[in-house]
Amino acid sequence: MIIGVGTDILNVERIKKILKKYDQKFINRIYGKNEVLISQGKLNNSDNFFGKRFAAKEATWKALSSIRGEGLFFKEIEILNDPNGKPYLFFSGKTKKYIEKKEKKFNAKLRFDISLSDENPFVVAFVIISLAPHV
User: Fold this and answer.
1) CATH class assigned to 2-131
2) If DSSP codes are grouped into helix, strand and coil, which group holds residue 56?
3) What's this model's pTM, rounded to 2 decimal places?
């Protein structure tokens, strides 16, 4: 059963401007430590890297139908990749607790599926939240 869907599209030029103006201050406020570490190897394409992840954080927020101040923090929503490159969501801190609370409400684990794509200058993210099948 699907309980949430979120999508976001972003012009990477917007992220470029923000990074140029705020640089590390913006990165440290929005991105988690794992994302920051990974980004250090993406110096040639960091705008696209950060843009995709920003769009994914927005899409996740929308899929969770959150209200501002309700317990979700962008820095605690990280978009990582498995060994084959497939993106997945990693939660920490208060955001992880928020999701655990939702799981308790549904009496089931939540499954997060994410897709990212880009066509310069745009990036797009799509997130589906469903109840994980019982095993």
Assistant:
1) alpha beta
2) helix
3) 0.91
